[in-house]
Amino acid sequence: MKNLFILFTLLITFKSFSQEIEFGEVSNQELKETFHSIDSSANAAYLYKKRRTYYQYNQSKGFMLITEIHNRIKIYNKEGFDKATFKIRTFKTSGNKEKVLSVKGYSFNIENDKIKKTKLKKEHRFKEEVSDNHDIVKIVFPDVKEGTIIDLKYVFNSPFEQNIDEINFQHNIPVNKLDITVEYPEYYNFKKISKGYYSVPVTSTKKRGSITFTSKTRRGGGINTAVRTSFQSSTVDYTRHVDKYQASNIPAISEKEPYVYSIQNYRGGIKYELSSTKFPNSRPRYYTTSWEDVSKKIYSFKGFGNEINKTNYYKEDLNSLIAKATKSTEKVGLIFQFVKSKVKWNGNYGKYTQEGVKKAYKNGSGNVADINLMLTSMLRQAGLNANPVLVSSKTNGIPLHPTLDGFNYVITIVQFSNNSYALLDATEPYSTPNVLPIRALNWNGRKVTKEGHSGWVNLKSPKHSLEERTIKATIDSDGTINGLFIKKEKMLNALLSRNKFNNVNKEDIISKLEEKYDFEIENLKIANQHKLGSTLTQMLKFSSDNLVEEINNKLYVNPFLFLTSSTNPFKSNKREFPVDYITPWKDVNKISIKIPEGYEVESIPEQLAIGLPENQGFFKFIVVKQGLNIKVSAILQFNSSMIAPTYYQTLKDFYSKTIAKQNEKIVLIKK
Amino acid sequence: MKKILPILAAILFSVNIQSQEINLSSLLIPKELTKHANAVVKENYTEVTIDAIDLMYVKKKRTITILNKLGNKEVDTYVHYNNDTKVTKLSAKIYNSLGVEIKKFSKSKFIDISAVDGGTLYSDSRVKYIDYTPTSYPYTVVFECEYKTSSTGFIPSWHPITSFLVSVQKSEFKINNPKNFEIRTKEINFKDFPIKKISEESIHYLAENIPALKHERNTLLFTDLMPNLLVAMNHFTLKKVSGKATDWKEFGTWMYSKLFINKTTLDEETINKIKSLTEGIEHDIEKAKIVYKYVQNKTRYISVQVGIGGWEPISADEVDKLGYGDCKGLTNYTKALLEIADVEAYHTLVYANKNRDIDKDFTSIQGNHMILNIPNNGKDIWLECTSQNTPFGFLGDFTDDRDVLVITPEGGIIKRTPAYKNETNIQTTKATISITEEGNVSANVEILSKGIQYDNKFHIETKSKDDLKKHYKSNIWDYNNNLEVNSINIINDKENISFKEELNVTIKDYATKTDNELLFRLNVFNKNSFIPKRYRTRKLPLKIDRGYKDIDEYTFTIPTSYKITQLPQKKELQTKFGHYTIELKKINEKSILYSKSILIKEGTYTKEDYKLYRKFRKSIAKQESLRIALQKQ
Fold first, then answer.
1. At residue B127, does pLDDT exceed 80?
2. How close, in Å, is residue B212 to chain A by CA atoms?
3. Do A138 and B122 make contact, defined as CB atoms within 8 angstroms?
């Protein structure tokens, strides 16, 4: 009896797990739902998201990658209407083409308490030829209203069988039920790389599969025999790996938060990257196994190591460039600037060259690899210990397992005899040694030597990106404030400012600053705009009549004057991914305010020093009175470039305190 | 043969050098043309030859010097084409600052992609362009392109000035009309610019040495400031359909008979449905309301750029089946349904978004959007058919207050859409606010919006509760830190076109506490701090696009341990741009009434007025952050 009961429960659980969702059938209850039961902010939700990716053998074409998709989406309101349009990108080369086949769909609505089912037809599908290499298939569902459920099924057929499309668990709308299967024959070996802040455990099993080959033999044709053709079929058995990812109630990922560089990186998912293949009767082919291996492999590609070895095209120019240079740092500086001015970045990333170094040099433009591999080569040629460093760009995310796609960018490292080193990226005109542009400031870099050895390199500068602001101000008896404002920037801050303002004429900079700070500028000077090694300095004289507030004969002034931040950038009560500052940073404010004749200080804000746990950052704020002068000094510093989501609430409170503090007033009273 | 070639090459080379010396060195550009300029159009030549009603050749040569990085977007080395247009010649050459050729793109080097934007589903529009990374500045690009098209409905118009911050050394426009077709032209804004008419007999213009102009905010539209030559033919072809249009009446007849006729058939089921829905209803307006609601519930907007020059709608039948369409399809569908209900309605062409008129004096293909007109015995009603939420008969700032073209079977008629002016766009904010001993605020707020202020916010109705909270915290009241929204109630009265928001909010630490005072800003919920940008010397006229009125009335209850000592005086600001008043009244020992009213009047003012307007807004902004201090008892 007891056993029977167990069996019974087993059956039930089994049933609830394998409960099939039938395409083209939805329930009345689902249709009547007006908002998502867990996330009421959802405009739409995947009621069901199914994907099955598997291999099919075709005797003439070999293995093909087939992906069956079934999406069922509930649309709650009008803002969710765009979820009823699907855009599927297909890739094509001269011989091969991805195809979208067997498209079937319905939209369901409730009409007079009955379910109305509208079929997706051919006229709802469009094909756009975007370029020589890709097309977009667009599917637009008919009869979509608030409350509609749409059901879509199609098959994606790809001859590029080594590339399994990335699997996303998380989307910008909730997923109620996720059911993903990836099946591949034993001949392929994949590395499964998970990403983002939401994971779904995998259940892996093995199943049997077989391929039937048919072969044709012609016999006879001799003097006495007629030609006879016979067909034989043989069967090859193999093992199929089956990975299942099943989950329920996956939350949506919010896209509108501050300090996010690429939301795609935070979205939970899995990537399959091919590490090796081993087909019957042929030797195994290895794609990747370890980072060491990945680096070696990349170095051996034609568009990488080989390109570094080319030297003839620049030899003469280089010789004359460094003819007089004696110190190695001097050579680095000259060559770095030379490459920057000689070859301009065309905006394309890449660890392999696009034009080839020679052509890039001649045309004066190229992709990341064209430029930085050329730089590496020249530095080596000049006798320096230079090597390429592979990087995963900010948008490429953080690869957790060794894969070729884990790197998509390359920079250069020069190591000196005293153990110091310089990281260089010549694609960015305002970068300096060890100050890389944001796109390259991600995770770690991998240095690869000539011999193919490799090792990790920390890309982030240990120095904080700095913005130091000094104000010397005087308050007149009529409430106007005049003064001098000096802003100094170093490291990444300087790079970003140069990038933003070096091409803007002074008149427009003045106008922008006046708008930002709501004051009037008399005289603006910018020093070291093009002297990259020096501190970028901006100096100006200002006057403003709206920094002092008069209430009941008292004057109220913000200690930071026009530099006061009044709003907390973090508004949401919850955040499930990190706050990304890109680099450690430090803001320093040094302000002195002279009070007008006839007034005395009634009160000044109390000092404050607060910190984040684990020395991730702090805020120090001090106001002191010195006769007719008030001196304010404050530092806001972050030692971590990234703050984990567990500290989000702490960070938000921390900001809120810094904001409140700088909005406390200095109060002056008439003597 | 072997000997001749190098000589020939040498001759060609020397010719080349010579022409480069004249044209292509960036160093010889007059100084007045480089001031404020990111690029200089050295020569922009357009020649149009009309060979037949359905055959037009266009030849373009554009030489532009890009002075700096910001000028790159002015390169414009692209050509659009579609099934009717064949690009016959295409090339681009890049020269360095000395005028030496450094790169050449032949036709096959141009990248060819679909020119369909993200919101469009299908269109035959394609574009060819080059992808060039500049290696140094300045550089010069010579772009040459020739194409022929069978569509003469759109003859290129001439815009000598294409952008702000670009100067023009020479721009020439010529139309060859060997067969003497009737061609009409209209010169717009020519008088303030150095433009010459080269020949009285033919259409041939030249503009020379126009310095770069800087953009300024709060001014007229670029198209209203800059010169433009409109060109149209009386007989033309559009996507293989021939047309005739000497005036709007004729144009309308053509459009109706070629593009709109026979597009309103529907199946029996739909006809019956509409008939039963409108059965027994007498007034056309009531019937139209039912039909409009039916359309809004059934359809959604999706752009489909097919048909004749983007103007032929997909048939009503089709929209009925699909449940979606673009502006033409949905307008036509609504018209078809109204026809069943015996309500007269007409397709209407309009320039949507930025306020621009259909030129009533110049007949040509104009407009970028379609709405529906119900004549309603002289009391016109206008329907925007692409929105699922817009109230019946409401246009909003998308299409209000402008000349439009109504297409009737008897021809085209120019009409004007209703305007939402100044006080019509009113927002009234009423709040009861209590301040606690700790300086926290707890308040009930009621905001009522009409006119364009309704238009600005009725879309939030569809937001979910959580998104709405975020909307108030991050957009509307982002200047109030620590604000929490406790409850929201929204009433969208589509009948009277008024939008009411009722909220309960709390703001922690709103007031600042000192030893014996409690300070707080009076305008808690509608702080208007807009100050127009400062220009040392304003060059363009001031335009206030949209007038409005805001009234704020807050009743404050103060904490028991504080008293009201001194309240600021009533303040009034009166200018030609509008007026502003702020007044405080002590209701009793524990409560204060704050009332504010601001009226901004739309209009175009002189450039000298800009400074006065800025001063006005600056004074307002100051009053808007006015704080008072309560004394500890």
1. yes
2. 14
3. yes
Q: What is the domain-level CATH number for residue A383?
A: 3.10.620.30
Interior angle at CA A127, CA A122 and CA A131, nearest 5:
170
Does residue A349 sit in the same domain as residue A486?
no
User: Are residues A31 and A178 located together in one domain of the fold?
Assistant: yes
Report d(CA B283, CA A490) in Å as an integer: 73
Range A370-391 burial, b when 16+ CB lie within 10 A, else e:
bbbbbbbbbbbbbebebbbbbb
A124 shares its domain with A167: yes
- Set out the domains of chain B in order of their start, with CATH numbers: 20-238 (2.60.40.3140), 245-416 (3.10.620.30), 422-632 (2.60.120.1130)
Q: How many domains does chain A have?
A: 3
Tokens of B481: 């830190």
Domain with residue A513: its CATH number is: 2.60.120.1130
Which residue type, as a one-letter code, is found at position A613? P
Q: What is the pLDDT of residues B535-569, one digit of tens each?
A: 989 999 999 999 999 999 999 999 999 999 889 99
Contact: A365, B565; criterion CB under 8 Å? no
How many residue contacts between A and B have a Cβ separation below 8 Å? 129
Exposure of B2 by Cβ count < 10 A (0-12 exposed, 13-18 middle, 19+ buried)? exposed
Neighbours of A105 (CB within 10 A): 23
Contacts of A84 in chain B (CB under 8 A): 300
Same-domain check for residues A95 and A168: yes
- For residue A459, the SS3 value is coil
- Establish if A214 belongs to a structural domain: no
Q: Please write the tens of the pLDDT for every residue from B267-293.
A: 999 999 999 999 999 999 999 999 999
Which site among A117, A118, A143 would you substitute to test the B interface, given the most B Cβ atoms closer than 10 Å to its Cβ? A143
pLDDT, tens digit, for every residue of B303-358? 776 555 577 888 999 999 888 888 999 999 999 999 999 999 999 999 998 889 99
Contact B230, B186 (CB under 8 A): yes
Matching residue, tokens 């073209």: B405
ipTM rounded to 2 decimals: 0.74
**Do residue A63 and residue A169 come from a single domain?**
yes
Residue that has been written with the tokens 């020739």 in this structure:
B146
Which of A571, A601, A663, A669 is most worth mutating to test chain B (most B CB atoms within 10 A of its CB)?
A: A571
What's the pTM?
0.83
DSSP secondary structure string for all residues of A613-653: GGG-EEEEEEEEEETTEEEEEEEEEES-SEE-GGGHHHHHH
Distance from CA of A138 to the nearest CA of B (A): 7
Domain that holds residue A451: 291-458
The closest of A251, A213, A516 to B533, measured between CA atoms, is: A516
Tokens representing A224? Answer: 């006495």
Q: Which residues pair with B145 in a beta bridge?
A: B60, B90
For residue B559, give Cα distances in angstroms to A235, A375, B435, B568.
89, 70, 6, 20
A633/A638 Cα distance (integer angstroms): 17
Which residues fall within 8 angstroms of residue A361, CB to CB, at 6 or more apart?
A: A313, A314, A342, A343, A374
Q: Which residues contact A370 (CB under 8 A, 6 or more apart)?
A: A307, A343, A353, A354, A355, A356, A357, A360
Q: In what order do the strands lie in the sheet with B195-197?
A: B101-105, B85-95, B139-149, B55-66, B39-52, B166-176, B203-210, B195-197
Could you tell me which residues come within 8 angstroms of residue A388 by beta carbon, excluding any fewer than 6 positions away? A299, A304, A308, A372, A373, A376, A410, A411, A412, A413, A447, A448
Same domain, yes or no: A271 and A325:
no
